[in-house]
Amino acid sequence: MNSNTYFYQFLEPISKELALLAKELENSIFSSPRTMLTHSRVFIENILQQVTKEEGIIDDPRTGLKERLDLLNDQGYLIPEIRDALHLVRRMGNQAAHDARMFRFSEALLSWEALYSIVKWYVEVYGPVDVSVPEYQDPSPQAETVFDMSELEVRLKGLEELLKNPPAQQAEIPASAEVAAAVAAPAAEVQETPGFTPIRSITYKGKSLQVPYFLRDAFLLPQRFDKSETFLIRLGAEQEARIMSELPGNLEGLHKNVKRYNEKNDEQFFDELGTFIEEEKVRRQLILKRQGELFFFYKASHIVVTEELKKVSLTADEFTGIPSLLRQLNEDQIYTVGQLPMELVILAKYDNVGVGTVEKLFDQLKAKVKNKTDQADGDIITERKSFKKWESLYVKVKHKGMLSVIEGPSVPAIWKEALKWIEDHHLPLYDMVKAGIILGSTDNGKRYAIALQPIHPDQRPFTQLHTYQSQLSGEVYYLETKINPKSGLETLGKVLARLGVEVDIPLLKAE
Q: Staple partner for 269: which of 176, 199, 228, 413, CB 3.0–4.6 Å?
C-alpha cells in the first residue's frame, strides 16, 4: 500500500468515519498499543450499534458495550467465533483503559486480527453486495526514529576524532589483560539512542556534568530545583539561566550575576542540576520505550495517564486536602485530570500552593491509578505469577537493646522509613549506597536497589524511580522500586543486618 491508501479503505462506501477510525487504529499499533486497544472498543461498539439498528432492535443509548454484545448474542445474531472476537477486543480495551502497565505490540496485533474477523462478518452479513473484503494483511511498523542532523554531526565528529586519534595500545598484551580489556567499558561510549549524545560539559570545581543532546535547550523550571528555586528565578530575570544553553561551561562565580547570593548557591545548583539531568534521562527513556503513552511527572516519579484517569473530576469529592488548588484550577477552566499539565510541579505557581500541596495531588492520583487497575473489568483473567500481597509491610528491628517496628504500605514507603531510621541512629549507610546496594538477599543480582545514580550496573536506567534525600549528607539516594514486596523486604533485611541491626521479618517467615 502506498501512503495514500490503508487497509480498511474498502469500508468507506459503508461508513467513511468507521474507515478513518480503522486507519488511525492501524497507525497506532506500533506507536501506541494502549491507544489502539482502548479505541478499538469504540470501533466495535459502532459496528454493534449498526447491527442493532439493522435488526430493528429497540436500542437504549445508555446501554454499555458488554450489555449490547450479550443482548445480540442471546437473541442469536452472533456466531460463536464473532462473539469471542468481540469479547476479546472489549476485554483488552478495558485493560488498556484501566491498567497502567506497558502494553505490547503483540497484544495490539491480536486485537487487530480479531477486528478483521468482526469487520469481515459485518460486511458479509450487513454490508452492500458490491463491497468485498480483502485477505487479512499484517500492518507494517513505521520507520524507526533517527538522529537529528545536528546530533548526527556531533556523533560523526566524535567518531572521526577517534579514527584520527585511536586509543594507545601496547604491542603485546598478556592474555589475562586482554580478557580484562574485552569486558571493560569502552573508552568512548557510542550512544545508540537518539538524543543521548553528550553535547557539552558543565563543570564546577573539578566536577563535571555531561549534557545530552535532547537537553541542549531544555527549560530549567525553577520548581524542579528545591534548594535553588529562588536562585534560578533571580538568574532567569537577568537572562542568565532560563534554559540549559544559557548556562556557562563553568558554574564557578555564577552567583555574581545576582545580589545576595554566594558560592554555596553555585554548589547547590550544580548538584541539583546533576539530579535534574539524570531524572530527565530516565523520563526520556520512559517516553521512548512507551511511545504514544501519556504521563504525569512529579520530581523523580511518574504516573501513567490512562483513559479512565483522564475523566476524573478535579473536585473536593475526588481529591481531599487541597481545596485552594482545586478552586484555582477550576477558575482556569481545568475541570478534569486529563487537562492537567504533564509536569505537575508547575502547579506550585498558584497562590498559596507549594510543592507539598502538589505532592498531595500526585499521591492521590497515584492511588487512583492503582484503584482503577484493581477494579478493572471483573471478567479479565490473568495468569501472572506474583508473590502474596500484604496489606502492610513491616520489619522488627533491635539496636542497642531498643526494639522498634519499621513499616509502610508499599516498598518505597517502608524503604524511606528504614533509611530515616538508619540515619536517626547514625549508622554508616552512606558507603553502602555509594558502592550501590544490590537488590535481593544477596549481592549476586544485576540490579541496584539503592544507589547514588539511577543507573543499574548494566547501564540501564531504573524502571520505577523514587528518591530519598539524606538527612546527614544532603545527598539524593535513588531507589529502584519496580520490585515485588518479597524482594523489597529481603533487601531491607540484608542492609539492616550488615549495619549490625537485629532484624525479624515475620512476613517472609510466613512465605
A: 228
Q: Cβ distance 209 to 277 under 8 Å?
A: yes
Distance of CA 35 to the CA centre of its chain: 16
What 3-state DSSP class applies to 467? strand
Q: Is the pLDDT of residue 20 over 90?
A: no
Instruction: Give residue 17's Cα distance to chain centre.
Output: 33
Length of the chain (residues): 511
250 beta partners: 203
Q: Give the separation between CA 377 and CA 91, rounded to whole angstroms.
A: 7
What b-and-e string marks burial along 391-409, b requiring 16 or more CB atoms within 10 Å of the CB? eebbbebebeeeeeebebe
Say if CB 489 and CB 505 are below 8 A apart: yes
Residue whose grid cell is 523489597:
488
Task: Please check whether residue 298 is in contact with residue 358, taking contact to mean a CB–CB distance below 8 angstroms.
Answer: yes
Least Cα distance to 278 among 108, 456, 60 occurs for: 456
d(CA 187, CA 247): 27
Pairing of strands 437-438, 402-408: unpaired
478 bridge partner residues = 451, 467
Distance CA 266, CA 7 (A): 58
* DSSP-derived secondary structure letter, 33: H
Contact 302, 296 (CB under 8 A): yes
SS3 per residue for 232-277:
HHHHHHCCCCCEHHHCCCECCCHHHHCCCCCHHHHHHHHHHHHHHH
- H or E element: which one contains 422? helix 411-424
**Residue 380 scores a pLDDT above 60:** no
Contacts of residue 141, Cβ cutoff 8 Å, sequence gap at least 6: 30
